[in-house]
């Protein structure tokens, strides 16, 4: 939803959109909840969500926030055991290695 709201802001030539911020905040809250739970922290879906936050910030946000998510992704990959642990999900493995 954060991506959709951000694209709508771009189309409407709006610098700032409250919906974008609200959806992004909700996404971050979900990710933080998943990361704090050992049963979900290392699931592919959580990595994909953080990857989406990274790309969102890279294209819609700031380089500081983008780099924060990128560093977080690298730390998550290392904590999981490296890129080889994504062998069953080659698309995610490829996206994370870029």
Give a structural overview.
With 98 residues, this protein is mainly α. The protein is built from five helices and no strands. It has one domain (18-97). The model has no long low-confidence stretch (mean pLDDT 87). Helix 1 (2-11) runs antiparallel to helix 2 (18-35) and helix 2 packs antiparallel against helix 3 (44-60).
Quaternary state of the chains: single chain
Please give the domain count. Answer: 1
In helices, the fraction of residues equals over 70%
SSE series:
HHHHH
How much of the sequence is in beta strands?
under 5%
Mean pLDDT: 87
The main sheet comes to:
none
Counting DSSP E segments of at least 2 residues, the number of strands comes to 0
Task: Determine the number of helices (DSSP H or I, runs of at least 4 residues).
Answer: 5
What is the global morphology? Answer: elongated
Global structural class: mainly alpha
Low confidence ranges: none
Radius of gyration: 14 Å
* C-alpha end-to-end distance: 24 Å
């Amino acid at each position: 939803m954060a991506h959709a709201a951000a694209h709508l802001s771009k189309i409407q030539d709006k610098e700032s959109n409250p919906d974008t911020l609200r959806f992004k905040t909700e996404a971050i809250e979900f990710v933080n909840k998943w990361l704090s739970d050992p049963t979900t922290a290392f699931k592919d879906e959580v990595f994909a969500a953080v990857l989406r936050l990274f790309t969102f910030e890279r294209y819609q946000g700031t380089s500081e926030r983008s780099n924060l998510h990128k560093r977080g992704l690298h730390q998550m990959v290392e904590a999981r055991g490296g890129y080889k642990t994504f062998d069953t999900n080659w698309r995610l493995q490829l996206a994370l290695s870029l």
